[in-house]
Amino acid sequence: MSNPTTFYPPQRTLMGPGPSDVSPRILQAMARPTIGHLDPLFIDMMDESKQLLQYAFQTENALTMPISAPGSAGMEACFVNLVEPGDKVIVCQNGVFGGRMKENVERCGATAVMVMDDWGKPVDPEKVEAALQAHPDAKILAFVHAETSTGTRSDARTLSELAHQHDCLVIVDAVTSLAGCELRVDDWGIDAIYSGTQKCLSCVPGISPVSFGERAVHAIQQRQHPVQSWFLDMNLIMGYWGGGNKRAYHHTAPVNTLYALHEALLMLQEEGLETSWARHAHNHQALKAGLEAMGMRFVVDEEWRLPQLNLVTVPEGVDEAAVRSQLLHDYDLEIGAGLGALAGKVWRIGLMGHASNEKNVLNCVGALEAVLTRLEAPIERGVAVQAAQTVFAG
Ligand code: PLP
Questions:
Q1: Does 243 score more than 60 pLDDT?
Q2: How far apart, in Å, are the Cα atoms of 244 and each of 46, 64, 155, 262, 322?
Q3: What's CA 100's distance to the chain center, in Å?
Q4: Which of 19, 87, 109, 198 makes the best surface tag, with the fewest CB within 10 Å?
């Protein structure tokens, strides 16, 4: 075994499905002195973070806060608090993460009724309507707003409306959507939602913002069984994160990571949420122009594409893993592989948060063209960077 020494990671450009590049301003915030998690100044910062999160989610939900663990824990927090043994939950699956929701439902002792759509397609509201009609005893509808495994957006507003017409609560996965594309928790009537810090907030991984509306809080209060997870029981967590000065110890908060989240949310507020959505959309257009000029095709229909996660086909006969490996080693650039049925056939190119900028678009398009040229791939040469530049110039 080698002699362990301090780990110095290389400076990569992260353009995969997450984590995305973290702004230096956020990393600096994280390096500030650790203070106690019950220190009055820390508590003031927590209150600000809750307020900033309400802005990011576009909600007035009082129960809006970060869970001290990654996105999967936010997912689990929503399910373990809202689902009880014997419940029926309609789960939409059009990629990896709907499958993880199903696991959560079943581990709560409930039944998951699956509404399946092809990978790369949005959740079909007609299928959801049919499932809601066929299962009038369903308590919850759960779906992923931005499916990271396929770069596909689903219509969260329509799906939430449908659920409410059938007296169901809605759980939404917004891990990849928050700050990257339009998301309005209150206007769309979303009852429970979770996200992650490592995507379009450009913060370090490891925290999961969540928000619960009044109907969801009421359902939690009416539970017949205690929440089976001690750590994720919202009733207990609120003793620490709840309003006012009466904060009680629940777990030791990840103090410095929460500095990072506070700074990330502050940056989002400074930029403006809608400006952030527009920036993601604009940079996506430039990346698309460059990739399409080379001859690559997008997998998802234009209307449902996520600007923050671009799924494009690998050119004929190209070893996609070799391309990713050369991009990483020669250009310090990370892009993502396809998953499941799409493995080997697509790349997932992220333009998330701080990483969604002109420099990254031009670097990515240029580096990809260089590597593909070296591998003698069947692409159009010498046009990609200019095509992307044209979008920026326009
Ligand atoms: N949901 C979606 C849509 C995701 O993309 C991810 C992670 O990529 C998760 C949930 C899980 O988040 P984490 O990996 O932070 O636990």
A1: no
A2: 11, 14, 37, 19, 55
A3: 14
A4: 109
Q: For position 33, what pLDDT does the model report?
A: 98
- Work out the average pLDDT over 14-39: 97
- The per-residue pLDDT of the chain, averaged, comes to 96
Q: Is the CB of 172 under 6 A from ligand 1?
A: no
Alpha carbon nearest to ligand 1 atom 13, residue = 71
Ligand 1 probe mutation, 72, 183, 232, 339, most atoms within 8 A of CB: 72
- Determine if ligand 1 sits within 6 Å of the CB of residue 176: yes
Per-residue burial over 21-56, b if 16 or more Cβ lie within 10 Å, else e, is bbbeebeebbeeeeeebeeeebbebbeebbebbbeb
> What is the residue with the minimal CA distance to atom 12 of ligand 1?
71
User: Which pTM was predicted?
Assistant: 0.97
Q: What pLDDT was estimated at residue 367?
A: 98
SS3 state at 317: coil
**What was the pLDDT predicted at 286?**
98
pLDDT band at 245 (very low <50, low <70, confident <90, very high): low
DSSP string, 175-228: TTTTTTS---TTTTT-SEEE--SSSTT-PPSS-EEEEE-HHHHHHHHT-SS--S
Q: What does the DSSP assignment read for 49-111?
A: HHHHHHHHHT---SEEEEESS-HHHHHHHHHHHH--TT-EEEEEESSHHHHHHHHHHHHTT-E
- Angle separating helix axes 214-221 and 71-82, nearest 10 degrees: 60
Q: How many CA atoms lie within 13 A of 304 on its CB side?
A: 22
